[in-house]
Specification:
Largest sheet: 6 strands, mixed
Number of helices: 11
Strand content: 5-15%
Shape: globular
Number of strands: 12
Helix content: 25-40%
Structural class: alpha+beta
């Protein structure tokens, strides 16, 4: 299993975390420059600061693998209580920086991989699950940050990966070796590269046998040789560079979004110990489904926390201007409260409304009351976050959030204000 040589002890504080990024010297291309002093560069400092909050507020939980106390972001959900705790954690954390904390995709990728590797092993007698548990234990013990790489550039959406004019529009295996595989391609929209230690790569869609070379799941340190990261432009990113005038930077200490990158894999070597699926193409769709199910659960929580900050800012602006008691202004703020709490309710509901299906397996760590969306994915606890179950109708059709569908906005405002 690959480890990060510069990290020799568990990261216990935000300061330990930031220093670990300095030591890794991950390189990211941004604004035409190759930058390797990530945690000290003004373009990336806000993103690193946001992730550092998860070390300042670690939300400890007991690992079902080791019994050690770990950060919940590296935890495998064991029960409905875990799912609910995840949602509450995300809202509380996002209320602090008022921006994306960049660790959700990694957490969800870990949970999805834990489930699907077990299922593959059950069918084929492979050892993917044991490999992955060793990697997961390493993450937990050293308190590392993982990000998820799911979305390929895709190219022509009407064609499958192996049918593209450019075969590298999807990550795929180009060589098998005795000690591992060589991969090439790209992943887009990687949230949190600037603040990560490890990267999980997995398929973006269902696949058939003729695309089995694209059916690959693996992990690697973010500074693995052969990976080039290209940073996406951010709103007001030029202002972030002007450190002498922070008043013009907006949320000057933290970012406004998650710091997305494109990752280009140019003949990157991955040891077999870090490969968790290869050519088991029929499980590609299960990876997508498992990841998406967990990821949809997050949004009412993380975006709810950010909305709390925005609402506070709006109220402060209104108060300074003396209009906080004006009717139409209160209506608009009440609508913000209404939408925020409905989002949050969706995340809480899909966690509580999970249901257990199938019989417990050796990979089901605690009780049969844990929840999963399908009988084939019964390895751990899972929310019922399908689009219809997770998102209430008023979120699919925002126009129904009106006074005709419930109490007046003024009544909501009166009930919600201190």
């Amino acid at each position: 299993m690959s480890t990060i040589p510069t990290i020799t002890k568990p990261l216990e504080t935000a300061e330990d975390y930031v220093q670990s990024l300095r030591d890794m010297k991950t390189e990211i291309w941004a604004m035409g420059q190759k930058i390797n002093n990530i945690p000290d560069h003004p373009l990336f400092v806000p993103h690193v600061n946001a992730v550092a909050k998860t070390y300042e507020m670690p939300f400890p939980v007991t690992s079902h693998l080791t019994g050690h106390t770990i950060n919940r972001f590296n935890h495998i959900h064991q029960s409905v209580d875990d799912l609910v705790a995840k949602v509450k954690m995300l809202r509380a954390l996002n209320q602090q920086p008022g921006c994306c904390i960049q660790r959700c995709a990694g957490m969800d990728a870990l949970n999805a991989t834990y489930i699907v590797t077990y299922e593959i092993d059950q069918k084929y007698g492979t050892t993917y699950h044991e490999r992955f548990k060793k990697f997961l234990t390493y993450l937990q013990d050293y308190n590392l940050v993982t990000i998820g790489g799911m979305t390929d550039p895709k190219g022509d959406r009407s064609k499958k990966p192996n049918q593209q004019r450019d075969p590298d529009l999807f990550v795929h295996v180009v060589e098998e070796r005795k000690d591992g595989i060589v991969v090439r391609g790209a992943k887009a929209h990687l949230t949190g590269v600037s603040g990560a230690h490890e990267l999980m790569v997995f398929p973006t869609e269902n696949m058939k046998e003729d695309a089995k070379d694209y059916a690959v799941v693996f992990s690697c340190p973010v500074n693995t040789p052969g990976i080039t990261y290209i940073f996406g432009r951010q709103t007001n990113d030029d202002r972030k560079m002007d450190t002498d005038h922070p008043i013009d930077q907006g949320n000057f200490k933290y970012a406004c979004v998650g710091g997305e990158c494109i990752a280009v894999f140019d003949n990157v070597f991955i040891p077999w110990e870090d490969v968790y699926m290869y050519k088991e193409y029929e499980f590609a769709g299960m990876f997508v489904e498992a990841f998406a199910t967990a990821h949809r659960q997050n949004y009412g929580a993380c975006k709810g926390g950010i909305a709390d900050v925005l609402l506070g800012a709006v109220y402060g602006i209104c108060k300074v201007n003396g209009v906080e008691h004006v009717g139409h202004v209160k209506d608009k703020m009440a609508d913000m409260i209404n939408l925020t709490e409905t989002l949050y309710a969706g995340s809480i509901a899909c966690s509580y409304e999970g249901r257990a299906r199938g019989e417990p397996t050796p990979c089901w760590p605690t009780s049969p009351n844990t929840t999963l969306p399908s009988s084939s994915m019964r390895s751990t606890a899972w929310p019922t976050t399908w689009w219809a179950a997770c998102w209430p109708p008023c979120l699919l059709r925002p126009t129904c959030v009106t006074r005709r569908s419930g109490p007046s906005s003024s009544a909501i405002w009166r009930a919600a204000r201190p």
